[in-house]
Amino acid sequence: MRLHLLAAAVGLTFALAGCASSGGLHPDGTPIDPSSLQAAHSLANVPASAAWPAADWWTGLGDPQLDTLIGEALADNPTLAVADARARQAQAAAGIADAARQPSLNVGGSLAEARIPTTVPSLGRGHVAPAKYVYGSFRWDIDLWGGKRAAWEAALGQARAAEVDARAARIELSANVARAYVQLGYAYTQQDLAKAELQRAQTARELTAQRVAAGIDNQLQLKRGDAEVASAEEQLAVASRAIDAAQSALSVLLGKGPDRGREIGRPQLLSPAELAVPDDLPVDLVGHRADVVAARWHVNAAGKDIKAAKTAFLPNLSLGVMAGLIAVGGENLFQLPARFYSVAPSVSLPIFDGGRLRANLSGKDAQYDLAVAQYNQTLVRAINEVADDVDALQSLQQQAEAQQRALTAAQDAWKLAEQRYRAGVGSYLEALSVRQQLLVAEQRMAALKAQQSDQSVQLIQALGGGYRPGAGQQLPAPTASVSPASAHHS
Q: Which end of the chain has fewer CB atoms surrounding its CB within 10 Å, N or C?
């Protein structure tokens, strides 16, 4: 008896020594600690705030029509349907992985005609007899090392990431609608200024033509007037096209045909959000940006995949049970006199698989490193986007203040030119030349206001666009190791 036990032990030792091994394989990626990404210097001159953008941040821009458009886009845009379908697909995959952890129970039966050998003449007429059986089976692959649970957790992590991605798609869509709406408002302002410039150029041309007819000016001044009129007509056409383009962009974002865009009324002048960022931006931003949360979930899922892949190197235990009734011959279809059953526990251990398990684990390690790299890239981009948007808004504010001084000076010059004309000191043609400078200043100011509104929306989006993790979407904590604690190398 001892010899048998010794032989079994020796055989098991050799088997374990020669089995497939995961030794030497490991991921290299390390997620960046958000607190290590310094932004205090870049945001030193920005007012601090504990508030983050609200989920319905667009209502603070002061235009009810914009509120309606964003609500319509969130309800009808086909892009969101794609994101939602992917989320449901990922949830289904998690359900399949969870089901794989559970025991399975099956029942079955059969009724067939069987030809009986002539050596057994008593089992039916003409050597043909009915063969019938019913059975029930039970199987359970026991998850000794937690591999199946890890695979389920990985699929669950991917499902969470898909849910967050769907939220991110909604945030991006609402921001794009607001930005297109800003462009529509700016296009209308451009059209107004282009019409005013065309009227000014036409009036100036008419006065020049009168002066040429009177012999005061020559054809050179008249041709310059013709050029100004043609240029103003071209600018008016550009502005009209900009309105059409903005309406078309909104139609696409709303998920509607082009006629829907033409129904949108002229936007009101939006009120950009005040410049402020939360106190501890780098750390807190991780939980307020949907793309960062989704990337972190991908890292978490990839770590679980590694654990599941490592357990494939270890012995596997399964239990199978089958029982049933069987009969051949007999007139009564419901009579099954013979009974059978089997209980079959089994143990399997990979010895040689041509490197398949190691290749699979190496792929999972690479997938983890890729997920970490993408998370780090997303996190770095997120923090820098906020800093860049803040810097852009500060610059635009300085430009707007300087342009306001230029606009005020141009307005004063136009008033003086009108006064001189009425007093008979200067000509109206000279006054129209000053009027042209005023229109140029108004165009630049309108462009800066549109840029400020657009940049404010971009800052809101960079700060998360009002994202708050829903149930089950909270950011998973980084794991100390992606390796399963119980996974000993075979």
A: N
